[in-house]
Amino acid sequence: MIDPRAIVADGARIAEDVSIGPFCVIDAEVEIGPGCQIHSHVVITGRTRIGKNNRIFQFASIGDEPQDKKYAGEDSSLEIGNDNTIRESVTINRGTADGGGITRLGDRNWLMAYCHVAHDCQLGSDIIMANGATLAGHVSVGDHVIFAGYSGAHQFCRIGDHAFLGMYGGVSQDVPAYVMVSGQPPRPRGVNSEGLKRRGFSSRQIRNIREAYRTIYRSGLKRDDALDQLRQRLADQPELEPMIESAARSERGLLR
Fold first, then answer.
1. Domain that holds residue 127
2. What are the residues whose beta carbons fall under 8 Å from the beta carbon of 10, sequence distance 6 or more?
3. From CA 122, how far away is CA 104, in angstroms rounded?
4. 140 pairs with which residues across the strands?
5. Final residue before a domain boundary, out of 115, 138, 161
6. Are residues 117 and 219 in the same domain?
7. pLDDT of the residue at 27
8. Alpha-carbon distance 64 to 127, whole Å?
9. Regarding beta strands 179-182 and 187-191, do their DSSP bridges make them parallel or antiparallel, or are they unpaired?
C-alpha cells in the first residue's frame, strides 16, 4: 500500500492497510493508524501521531516545526484523532514548550484546502474549516464549530462549541458557545440557530439559548452578573452550560 516513490524513514510506525501515495515523505517518529489514506506529495514530520481512517490530501504539511521565533528545537508533538479529512495544502504545526508541547486535533474534522492550524492549538471534534481558514498559536476550539472561508482567530483565543465564524471574520477575542460572528470587523450577530437545528436541538432549547445570548449581549449587565443569572436557569435549561462555561473561562474578553 506504500508507493515505491514515497520516502518512509526507518522507525515510522505505519499500520498494514495504510495507503501512502507517490512522493510522500514520512519521518521516523511518525505513527499512522489503520485505514488512513495519504495522497501524493504529503509531508509528515516530527513526533506526530495520526489515528484511524484519516484522509490527507496532496501537498499537506503535517507536524512540522512551529512557526514561533522562540522555538529552539525542543521536543514537541502533534496528535490527530480519527476520521478526519485534511485537504490540499493544509498546514498543521506541532506544539512548543511554552504551550504545553502538543497540538491536538480531535475526530471527524474537515479541514478544506489551504487551512492553517498553528502550534499548541487544541481542536475538538466535528469542526469544519472552509478554505483558507487560519488559527494562530494556542487557539482553543470546541466541538461542531464552523469557520467560513478565510476566517480565523488571533493567538490564545477560545471558540466555544457550535459557534460560527463568517467569511473573512478574524476574531481577536473569545467567542462563546453557540454564538454566530460575521461582518468586517466581525461582531456577534446572534445564535447559530440553523446549525443547532441540524444537530438536533429542539425549538425550546434554541429559544432558551437565544434568551441567554440576549442576557450576555443585550441586557447591559456585566459579564459575571449575566452569567450568575444564567446559572440560575441551569436546572431547567442544561443546554446553557456550554455557553456559560465558555464565557466564564474567557481570558481575552468576549468579542462584542
1. 7-138
2. 28
3. 5
4. 122, 158
5. 138
6. no
7. 98
8. 22
9. antiparallel
Residue 30, strand partner residues: none
Indicate whether 96 and 207 sit together in one domain: no
Give the active site residues: 119-120, 137
Residue 245 has phi, psi (to 5 degrees) of -65, -45
pTM as predicted: 0.96
- Residue 34 within any structural domain of the chain: yes
d(CA 46, CA 38): 16
The greatest distance separating any two alpha carbons of the chain, rounded to the nearest whole angstrom, comes to 64
Choose the final residue of a domain: 92, 116, 138.
Answer: 138
- Residue 115 shares a structural domain with residue 230: no
CA distances from 101 to 74, 82, 121, 157 (A): 9, 21, 10, 18
Q: Do residues 133 and 200 both lie within one domain? A: no
Residue 213, in any domain of the structure = yes
| Sign of the torsion angle spanned by Cα atoms 221, 240, 163, 246 | positive
Q: Kindly give the confidence (pLDDT) of every residue in the chain, 256 residues in length, as a single tens digit, with 9 standing for 90 and above.
A: 899 999 999 999 999 999 999 999 999 999 999 999 999 999 999 999 999 999 999 999 999 999 999 999 999 999 999 999 999 999 999 999 989 999 999 999 999 999 999 999 999 999 999 999 999 999 999 999 999 999 999 999 999 999 999 999 999 999 999 999 999 899 999 999 999 999 999 999 999 999 999 999 999 999 999 999 999 999 999 999 999 999 999 999 999 9
Residue 80: inside a domain: yes
Residue 34 — φ and ψ, nearest 5°?
-60, 150
Matching residue, cell 440553523 = 194
- The total domain count for the chain is 2
Q: Are residues 12 and 119 in the same domain?
A: yes
Residue 108: per-residue pLDDT: 98
| Cell output for 160 | 466555544
* Residue of 157, 158, 110, 154 whose CA lies nearest to 134: 154
